[in-house]
Amino acid sequence: MMGPAHSLSGAAAWLGLGAAAAALDHPMPWPVLVVGALICAGAALAPDLDHKSATISRSFGPISRILCGIIDQLSYAVYKATRSKADPRRSGGHRTLTHTALWAVLIGAGASALAMTGDRWAVLGILFVHMVLAVEGLLWRAARTSSDVLVWLLGATSAWILAGVLDKPGNGSHWLFTGPGQEYLWLGLPIVLGALVHDIGDALTVSGCPILWPLPIARKRWYPLGPPKSMRFRAGSRVEVKILMPVFMILGGVGGLGALELL
């Protein structure tokens, strides 16, 4: 799928998780719901770090373009080193390593560890990166026609304000983990969820997605999971733009109302 659909699906997934948490009598404070939805929307773009033309490659100027090139080569190297004889030959790493559940878990765990062991600047850094990505995904029309610097300033300002809100007693820094030093351990959850939602979205497209790597399926190590081919669509098609994106908006709205216990 394309960037805007990925971000919408990520936000909708976290809001849906918020509704489930409320139903289980462990509701999210509203700052956790908002911040988590924005992080998840941004994280839903991150698996495309292996694609030089993806939305994320343009998000941080030369830094993200160089990083995408490095991740592409790393993913390609891992693919070549682990492919089975049944896996096709490739010329690049797109939709390989970064499009797996294992990658999603590792990235989320790394973010949680950084948030827990680092200082306030580590939390601000995590928030800044994902706020910028959320702007690029959710407000993509405005982001593409405005200056990158303005997008970065919006991301930095949002990160600073939201971190301040979360730090206030009862606003969510201790929402899920209450032990000393574990205030922001939960930040990895929307990152994992966003990456997984991205992978599931790509699995619905023509090429499928190797979510379960390195588990072998049908003699392939990089088996592209997905529904029957008759039910798949091409990225950027009318199915994605006219059907899925409105559905994500509706599901996100319902999930948000349920999470705030307004239904």
Key terms:
mainly alpha; 263 residues; globular
Strand content: under 5%
How many helical stretches? Answer: 10
Order of helices and strands: HHHHHHHHHH
Q: How many whole angstroms does the radius of gyration measure? A: 18 Å
Number of strands: 0
The biggest beta sheet, please?
none
Distance between the termini: 31 Å
Shape: globular
Mean pLDDT equals 92
Low-confidence stretches: none
Helix coverage percent of residues? 55-70%
Give an account of the 3D structure.
The protein has 263 residues and is mostly helical. Helix content is 61%, strand content 0%. The protein has ten helices and no strands. α1 (3-23) runs antiparallel to α2 and α2 (30-43) packs across α9. The model has no long low-confidence stretch (mean pLDDT 92).
How do the strands and helices of this protein lay out in sequence?
Elements: H1 3-23, H2 30-43, H3 55-59, H4 62-82, H5 101-117, H6 120-138, H7 140-145, H8 148-167, H9 188-203, H10 238-259
Helix pairs in contact: 1-2, 1-6, 1-9, 1-10, 2-6, 2-9, 5-9, 6-8
